[in-house]
Amino acid sequence: MTVLIIALVILALVAALFGILSRDNGKERVQQGPSCSTCTDDDERCEQTCMLEAAVREIEYYDDEHLDRFAGRPSDSYSDDETEEFADVMYTLLPSDVAGWNRSLILRHIEVPDALKDELIALLTT
C-alpha cells in the first residue's frame, strides 16, 4: 500500500512539473498561417484576417487616386467612360496586385462597376 501511495505522489509531482513547464506564462500563442499574399478562396479566415489587418493600416493606392471620387456610388450607376477608368487601372495591374487593389477599393468604399465584376473575379482566381 505504501508503494502505491508513493507511486501516486511521484506521478502527481511529474504531472505538476510537466504542467508548469508546458505553460506559456499566460501568453496566447499566435498561430502562423498563410500570408495575405497567399490567401485563396478556400480559406475565408485568411481573407478576413487580411481585411482586418488592412483596415488598421494606411490604404494602399495603385495609381488610382482619381477613383476616389466614386466613393459611395452604387456599382450599377457608372457610365461607359467611368467604367473604362476602372478598366484602365485593373488591366495594368500585376496579377499579384489585383487582390490588394480590390481590398483597397473596398476600404475606400468604392464599388467596382457591374460591367467589370466578372473580369475582376476572373483575375482574382488566376
What would you say this structure looks like, in words?
It is rod-shaped, with a radius of gyration of 26 Å. The protein has helices spanning 2-22, 44-56, 80-90, 98-107, 114-124. With 126 residues, the chain is an all-alpha fold. The longest helix is centred in the first third of the chain and has 21 residues, at 2-22. Residues 26-32 have low confidence and may be disordered. The chain is 52% helix and 0% strand. The protein contains five helices and no strands.
Give a short synopsis of this structure.
With 126 residues, this protein is mainly α. 52% of the residues lie in helices and 0% in strands. The longest helix is centred in the first third of the chain and has 21 residues, at 2-22.
Return Rg in Å.
Answer: 26 Å
Please state the structural category.
mainly alpha
Distance from first to last alpha carbon:
70 Å
Low-confidence parts:
26-32
What's the shape? Answer: rod-shaped
Can you count the helices? 5
SSE arrangement, N to C:
HHHHH
The tally of beta strands, per DSSP, is: 0
Tell me the β content.
under 5%
What is the overall pLDDT average? 81
Question: What characterizes the major β-sheet?
Answer: none
What is the percent of helical residues? Answer: 40-55%
Task: Map the helices and strands.
Blueprint: H1 2-22, H2 44-56, H3 80-90, H4 98-107, H5 114-124
Characteristics:
mainly alpha; 52% helix; 0% strand
